[in-house]
Amino acid sequence: MKKLLQSLFVLLFFASTAIAQDRTITGTVTSSDDKLPIPGVSVRVTGTQIGTVTDANGKYSVKVPSGSKNLDFSFIGYLAKNVAITSSNTINVALESDSKTLSDVVVVGYGQQSKALTTQTTATVKAESFKNMPIQTPQQALQGQAAGVNMINSSGVLGSEAQITIRGGGSISAAGRPLYVVDGVPLNSSGGDYTQTQGGSSALNPLINISPNDIESMTVLKDASAVAIYGSRGANGVILITTKKGASGKTRISADYQNGFSSPTSVDEMMSADQFRQFRTDYLKANNQTVPTYPTTSYNWIDAVIRTGKSNTVNLNASGGDERTKFYLGGTYSDESGYTLGNNLKRLSGRLNLDHKISDKFTVGLNYSLSHIDMDRIGSENNTYAPLTAAYLQLPYVTPYGPDGKFQNTGFVANVVAIAETGINKNYSDRSTGNAYLEYKIIPGLRLKTDWGIDNYGIDEKYRETDLLTPGGYAYRTHYTDNKWVSTNTLNYDKTFGKHTIAALAGYSFEAAKLTQMMVEGSGFVSDDLPNVGSASTPITASENIYEWALQSFFGRLNYDFDKKYLFEASLRRDGSSRFGPNKKYGNFYAVSGGWLISNEAFFNKDNNFAQNLKLTASYGTSGNDNIGFNAYYGTFASGSNYLGQAGLTPSNVPNPDLSWEETGQLDIGLSARLFKAIDVQFNFYNKNTTGALLTVPYPYTTGYASANRNVGKMRNRGYEVSINSDNIVGRDFTWRTSFNIGFNKNTIIDLPVNPDEDGRNFLTGSAVQRAITGYSKNSFYLIRYNGINPQTGNAEWLKKDGTVTTTPLASDRVIVGKGNPDFSGGITNTFTYKNFDLSAFFNFSYGNDVYLDGLQFADNFSSGSYNKSVKLLDYWKQPGDNAFAPALNSSTRTTYQQASTKQLLDGSYMRLKTLSAGYSFPKELLQRTKLFTSLRIYFQGQNIWTIKNKDFRGDPEISANGASNLVLGQSFFALPQAKTFTFGVNIGL
Q1: Within 726-872, where are the H helices?
Q2: Which among 238, 435, 441, 774 is most buried, taking Cβ atoms within 10 Å?
Q3: Is the pLDDT of residue 455 over 80?
């Protein structure tokens, strides 16, 4: 009996112990906003890996060991909650919305996604990053702000197009611009089709009509999962521009005024009249030549064409609404004069964004903008009518005025002072863009939306030269229109089933555009007082070209996530384009991607202070480039030929029914996390392969054609990107935040048409000094290597192909010596606030790229007497032992010293203090007393203030005068340097 009692006691003890160790707690988790249950909430015993998730009805059941004190409840979009375990076995919890997380969404093609759950690789630049910056166009706001985006201002000319590439670009010789989409409308952006050349290769900026003040955010779509939804236009990347919207509540009025001034960041020093006369005299005497009698006059042309630039900008907007109607109304007026004589730009723009909820089922909206540009243009570079080019080259004893005090003709290097004073070089443009939509909620989770968009662009140019420059005078007038309409219809479905969430998109779009180019040109005017081309006595040209194209698209996307841990996305697009041959009208583009939210796994210790929100993603897909011009697949003949005295036609374009888009396949692997609860880090590796690149293939002349367009080239871009956003110090009165990004890219040409160089490598010419070469960058510099001045002989020396020294190099001695694209580029921003004061410093940088300064072939031309020269030539060799810049005056190399070589190729790496901003916001308590102002901030900004560059670089390293060209990058012929700008402003909120 005693043993039986002992046994029963032992059993009861262990049973009670087991019960104490295995307590079960149940409950329901709901939202504090709408009281509805939340499925998928993580419920975990604090400090352990024991846990579960709520079911479709928000219910949970979890076994907790004895001694457990608390339960942790967490879910994306809600604030985490820690609840004490009481004696009750039922614990119901209501979670509060995390407004910061819920608002942290990213704009993607045809929609939005949660940043935490997206598998796409994007970079978003919000309005706060470029607020109050004195920028002309949206592209400038991207510089140094997004990893993998390399943006180079082509020059300091107002209205010039920037060179922007995303992950190295996706084309070799076809157009390389990204696709710009504003509020769902893909923009016309072929800047080179809208204007006559002004001397340089850089086209008119196609986004100059868009006011940066109206932009809420810009999202750069980079990997295949992001761009495949845009199919045949996504290979060069896509930039989604979202404009500002209204919000429920009191109407808010905001006004901003800026006033600033500018000057060039760098100006080359040329010889004065006295220095030039003395140099030429010494040079001619050293070579036993007759010294002419030089004029005794003197004029500083550089001072004449450079002035203090000025800018005034006013922004005014109002936004507000209620639960049914929301609106945004904005307007901008800016008046800017560049630091170069004759370059001015005025812009007037307005925007209306309206959303109205007709009923619980129907919503309508309108996004519409209208703008007008009035611009005084100038020659940009490689043009003796360009102010700065002419100022550098003009002989310093030549003056703009003759003995009678009137303007005089200065010969081949034009009198640019007279041009600015007497000529007309105007560009007017009007642009209206927008879309109207209707959205119908069919059933919960299922929405139908139809959009109708337009982009109507009209450009007028008026040019007039007086008799002084062209005997009889000369004029032209052009009128360009590029009008597009687009219809997009989409069906969206979103549904959550327990731990499963799906989102599906199906869509159809059709767009058509018509480009019209008209030009009239004439010469011979009775008087300079007649400004219009219609007054010309001799017509030269009267032409009209019309180009039309259309694009039909079917697209879809499917997103799935399981338990907020495992993510999947697939997209497909089928495009039909009129640009391509009848055998290749349609093409298919796709992408698949997956993600793993490691931090949502049960095994992940959510209490650790090292890493949170840990996510791994991978994607692969394809996209295309359809920007190959118009009607390139047609077989055409050219008129105007003479055959045995009879009018004839000659073959012009080889027919190619198989002509198609270039296609880029891209692999992307990404890892993102929040470290130490303060640092957001994202790392991505990518590998892009472009096939079917559109190239010009040489033909035997016996065919009657010189060449033909074919899809034959292959190219690879491979690299990685790092983005870091850090809350360094967040205190009551003081905060310090840092944003850093860097992108590494290596571009390699894989295959080109047969066109071997001396070493048997196929190549494609970009310029006289730059080419795409198989196995190397598409922007490889191919030059003779300059070796310097021999201290003993005073001769300039170069290297032969085998590396031996020579004073008489040949074209066959050229080798690959550098590249125009950088090894890496990026930016870093530090933002500080102390009470009501704020300070921000933004640096951008580029490393590993070279810049070829073609103008140095003139500025350093030792022997010519037709142009002015750099003061550096005064440092010429005089005696053995001299380490001189230039050869001896009578050196046998004096006439070849300026030839194209690495002497003009300089290291273009730099770091620049791009923007420095300081401001003060008046206390709200003080403003409330006025009963008028809700906010008031005064600020100062400086742009391009300070630059670190190679000590031997001459001028501004941030230059690429060929604009959006793919094959020519990092070249300049006296292109204008960037403007150093100082701006003062005030923000007022009512």
Answers
A1: 856-859
A2: 238
A3: yes
